[in-house]
Design brief:
heterodimer; A: alpha+beta; Ubiquitin-like (UB roll); DNA polymerase, domain 1; 5-stranded mixed β-sheet; 33% helix; B: 333 residues; alpha+beta; Uridine Diphospho-n-acetylenolpyruvylglucosamine Reductase, domain 2; Enolase-like, domain 1; 4-stranded antiparallel β-sheet; 11 helices; 25% helix; binds flavin-adenine dinucleotide; binds iron/sulfur cluster; binds FE2/S2 (inorganic) cluster
């Protein structure tokens, strides 16, 4: 079957089997290997991408269901020559050890900062109307991204640093 | 994953073409390990009229495709039914909530580990197969409402909130009729057919959830106890909404999660509490009525203690006996 998706601003026509997940399409059909496969079951966040601007797990998306949709991957938010604020902050703060979870962490953090700016509450927000980027808010809002190396404190520091830059 | 035919639904009648897929966060997970292996999928995500939240009288009609994120963030929901926002935000991760839908959340399957393991016997996956959880490991299993054929619990947080809020499920069938079923009557216990979990017929489509008018002035809580602070299913949860006059409980709605094959309610407990002055002694007495004397599986014996303590702590928070500050409390206007 055939599906058209827009990845990092470029249109792609994909010929694929009905079973193809968006994660497989990105990595194997489009050679965008920045997006990682960890668990393949929605449990780790390594495959996080933006689908029409919202963070989702690409492993739990069927390519067939996303005809016409816009996808942003880690390759779409910066390059080695021109790093995004989050990428710079992860390097600066050493927000990783092995780096396997990092693309997912960065994509998730990019969406998370936008959600916060738009006033979205989290489970730990004291009231549902206003929340600020405290350490506990960040831990809760980033809980869909596991880090096997447990670099969590430095990941949160990196995100806090990028949030400051973006202000 | 076993291969399947993919159909994109363009009208309600197309849902008869196969197994419905919405967010896919539960169904694809199960298809990857062949716990579910439908011959055909019907993608309902592009159907018109299922993706918005409309005012209906003083209540709300929430389309079946409204995402968990959109529902939790809706200004009307946050103001009038904060317990629903809290319960949704307590579940899964931001990534999953962005995809998960209102209809799909209600129909998510159990987290019993033997249901997920196709090398084990499971009456829910394969009726008549037996139940490997009996004599196996079972700390996620239910306390109430089980049968000899299945001991599994329903994992949804959102469904517990909707039960406490006395919502209704709107269902469209192949004969083009629409009916509404109260949350309390939507799910079915396992009996001899644990594979049948609710009143939906084969080709039924959930079109919406309907919330009754907000219970203004009531204090609302969703309290969830789990193995880690975030991104974990509940061991026990309680959704509560309580009206007080002075120190007296004048009205209340309670539902209990992850302790039964569906959100659990108990009329006797509500009767014990209603029109009584809030006190620790009263809550102890209600807990005696709520908590069963034995657990259906030795591994869930701890849930009796956990449910009791969670119940008392929740009632103290709801009635102002304890400091109401805390992340799981919300007040209606
Ligand atoms: C890692 C992980 C952690 C999670 N943690 C939690 C948690 O803590 N708390 C919690 O409550 N949930 C949790 N979930 C479950 C999550 O909430 C559900 O997967 C999600 O809500 C299902 O919605 P969906 O739209 O993706 O459903 P789908 O996967 O698309 O569908 C689920 C089922 O519903 C049927 N269906 C869907 N829509 C309709 C409709 N309109 N009419 C009729 N049938 C329909 C489908 O046929 C399918 O059988 C977790 C999931 C994952 C993967
Ligand atoms: S408890 Fe239910 S879901 Fe678990 S193995 Fe037994 S029959 Fe299957
Ligand atoms: S690979 Fe998708 S969540 Fe783990
Ligand atoms: S840095 Fe190794 S998994 Fe996160």
């Amino acid at each position: 079957m055939k599906t058209t998706i827009i990845v990092n601003g470029r249109l792609h026509d994909i010929e694929h089997d009905a079973r193809r997940t968006l994660l497989e399409t990105l990595r194997d059909d489009l050679d965008l290997a920045g997006t990682k496969k960890g668990c393949d079951h929605g449990q780790c966040g390594a495959c996080t991408v933006l689908l029409n601007g919202k963070r989702v797990n690409a492993c739990l998306c069927l390519t067939a269901m996303h005809d016409g949709d816009q996808i942003t991957t880690i390759e779409g938010i910066g390059s080695s020559e021109r790093l995004s604020a989050l990428q710079k902050a992860f390097i600066e703060k050493d927000g990783y050890q092995c780096g396997y979870c990092t693309p997912g962490q960065i994509m998730s953090a990019a969406a998370m900062l936008r959600e916060l700016r738009n006033g979205a509450p989290s489970y730990v927000s004291e009231d549902l109307e206003t929340s600020e980027l405290s350490d506990s808010e960040m831990a809760e809002r980033m809980s869909g991204n596991l880090c096997r190396c447990s670099a969590y404190p430095l990941i949160r520091e990196a995100i806090a640093m990028a949030a400051e830059v973006e202000k | 994953m076993r291969n399947f035919e993919y159909h994109l639904a363009s009208s309600f009648k197309d849902v008869t073409n196969g197994q419905i897929i919405a967010g896919g966060t539960n169904l694809l997970d199960l298809m990857k390990i062949q716990v579910m292996a439908p011959d055909a999928l019907v993608d309902i995500t592009r159907l018109d009229g299922l993706s918005d939240i409309q005012v209906e009288g003083k209540g709300l009609r929430i389309g079946a495709l409204v995402t968990n994120t959109a529902l939790a963030n809706d200004a009307r929901v946050k103001a009038g039914w904060p317990l629903l926002s809290r319960a949704i935000l307590a579940g899964a991760s931001a990534q999953i909530r962005n995809k998960a839908t209102t209809g799909g959340n209600l129909l998510q399957r159990t987290r019993c580990p033997y249901f997920y393991d196709t090398s084990q016997s499971c009456n829910k996956r394969n009726p008549g197969d037996g139940c490997a959880a009996k004599g196996g490991a079972g700390r996620m299993l239910a306390l109430f409402g089980t049968s000899e054929h299945c001991l599994a619990a329903h994992p949804s947080d959102m469904a517990v909130a909707l039960t406490a809020l006395e919502a209704e499920v709107e269902i469209y069938n192949a004969a083009r009729e629409t009916r509404r079923v109260r949350m309390q009557e939507f799910y079915q216990g396992p009996g001899s057919r644990p594979d049948v979990e609710n009143v939906l017929g084969k080709d039924d489509l959930i079109t919406a959830i309907v919330l009754p008018p907000p219970r203004s002035g009531e204090r609302q809580i969703y309290r969830k106890v789990r193995d880690r602070a975030s991104y974990a299913f509940a061991l026990v949860s309680i959704a509560g909404s309580v009206a007080m006059r002075g120190e007296t409980i004048t009205d209340l709605r309670l539902a209990y999660g992850s302790v039964a094959p569906h959100p659990w309610t108990d009329r006797d407990v509500a009767r014990i509490l209603k029109n009584q002055k809030a006190s620790n002694e009263l809550f102890q007495r209600a807990a005696d009525a709520l908590v069963p004397e034995t657990a259906p599986h030795p591994d869930t014996d701890y849930k009796r203690i956990l449910l009791r303590r969670t119940f008392i702590a929740t009632m103290r928070q709801l009635t102002g006996l304890s400091d109401p500050e805390g992340s799981d409390i919300a007040r209606t206007n």
